[in-house]
Design a protein that fits this description.
Shape: globular
Order of helices and strands: HHHHHHHHHHHHHHHHHHH
Distance between the termini: 12 Å
Number of strands: 0
Helix content: over 70%
């Protein structure tokens, strides 16, 4: 019995899931502490700042993350050094460009005395500091994912998320610091993780001398599509917050309220992120080997099993939505409880559709069709932005924003299957049969 449990613990999907769950748990605690330490308006400004930072981080690392994981999978030691050195050098150049843009825009706002949401101002001034502090550990994530070393990935992420959570606990009961101090501490804990990765030679800094223009060009040529895909994917979620922040009626308070059901939805999506991280290297390897039958088999199994797992999760969330919203937001949001409960229940429908949409994108990248995945996500993003503007400025409704999320996901599902049927003759009916086969052989699969 102990031997079986040990084998299950080593299974990569579960290792990835445990890594993400551990980080997400501390992220949840941090979120709950922030809702209780900051007023609704200040919390909305924090959410806007961190949403923009996450979005731009995806832009930075999206250029190299997917392509470097693909190349690092199965690469020898010398090749790995070259790839890591190239990714670090590319991301360092991007940091310089983004710093110039952010501080230039900040100075322009001051010069022309333009009025915008303070969350945007926080981002423009503080993001370059955050971007420098998280450069090394973010670059190291490519190596960890390619090696399927989810334990190391978890430890690095816990080092900054855990320290930030510890600070917030101290701040709740003792320090009583404000928003700006919280932003600076967030920058500091990211720097600690980055320094650790540099010392351990995981980030590629020491291998910059091994970088070659040929590999850089290869990374960028593939990455320009995957970056567009990741950025567009991020816009699918972050555009809600960014557009709400533009509204003079909803504003920072609207962002704060919408952030609570959105955070719960992100938590429910953690298993999907974990499975996608393990599926991508597996499908990429089989694709490079030319074994399309195996690629499709992996795809069918993942889509079917993960969708099956998500059904009871979504149903439970729908039933207990009110309690979950109140638990996360606290008494500050008691007066908005019926509205936030309705928004979260709309999101549970989105959760059910998400696995199919996500894995069609992962498969397109795995078979070296990142351009098609980019087109798919661009269509979804365009639909979401249009729906968001209608929801915020015409209907002035946060519920309408959530409904738009369901609509664009349905669009993505159909478009993904359309591309995959055309490229490798994917058959949706195979999802059921392969999932049943996987369940029958589950014991053998776990070792």
């Amino acid at each position: 019995m102990l031997g079986k449990l040990k084998n299950i613990g080593k299974e990569k999907n579960l290792s990835s899931l445990m890594a993400n769950v551990s980080v997400a748990f501390l992220g949840l605690v941090s979120f709950m502490l922030l809702t209780r330490q900051l007023s609704k308006e200040l919390f909305g400004e924090w959410v806007l700042f961190i949403t923009l930072a996450t979005f731009v981080d995806l832009l930075r690392f999206g250029l190299t993350r997917t392509s470097s994981v693909r190349l690092l999978s199965g690469a020898d030691d010398q090749k790995q050094k070259c790839i890591l050195g190239c990714t670090f050098r590319i991301n360092l150049k991007l940091l310089g460009v983004l710093t110039f843009v952010c501080w230039g825009a900040h100075m322009a706002l001051l010069f022309f005395s333009l009025e915008i949401n303070n969350g945007y101002r926080l981002f423009l001034f503080y993001y370059p500091f955050l971007a420098l502090s998280n450069l090394s550990w973010n670059n190291a994530m490519s190596l960890f994912q390619a090696e399927q070393n989810f334990r190391r990935m978890m430890m690095v992420r816990l080092s900054n998320v855990g320290l930030f959570c510890l600070f917030l606990i101290l701040n709740q009961w003792w320090l009583k610091l404000g928003l700006l101090e919280i932003v600076w501490v967030n920058i500091a804990v990211n720097a600690i993780s980055g320094i650790w990765c540099s010392i351990k030679n995981w980030d590629g800094l020491i291998y910059v001398r091994h970088a070659t223009r040929t590999v850089e060009k290869e990374l960028v040529n593939f990455g320009k599509y995957s970056m567009g895909t990741l950025v567009s994917s991020s816009l699918l979620k972050s555009s809600d917050t960014l557009i709400i922040g533009m509204s003079p009626i909803l504003g920072s308070a609207g962002i704060a309220m919408y952030a609570i059901p959105l955070k719960l939805t992100d938590l429910l999506g953690i298993p999907l992120h974990s499975f996608a991280m393990t599926a991508y290297p597996r499908m990429s390897k089989k694709s490079i080997e030319g074994d399309l039958a195996a690629v499709k088999k992996i795809f069918y199994s993942y889509v079917g099993i993960v969708t099956l797992l998500f059904f009871p999760v979504a149903l439970t969330a729908f039933v207990f939505a009110e309690h979950m919203v109140l638990f996360l937001g606290g008494n500050e949001y008691l007066d908005s409880l019926p509205l936030l409960t309705l928004i979260f229940r709309v999101f549970t429908v989105y959760i059910m559709l998400l696995p199919i949409d996500r894995f069609t994108g992962v498969l397109l990248d795995s078979i070296n069709r990142p351009k098609l995945n980019l087109y798919k996500v661009l269509v979804m993003t365009s639909a979401n932005i249009i729906l968001n503007f209608l929801a915020v400025f015409v209907f002035k409704s946060l519920v309408a924003v959530a409904v738009g999320t369901v609509v664009f996901t349905i669009v993505g599902m159909f478009l993904g299957f359309f591309y995959l049927k055309r490229e490798i003759q994917i058959q949706s009916k195979q999802i059921v049969s392969e999932s049943v086969l996987f369940l029958k052989n589950l014991k053998a699969h776990l070792g």
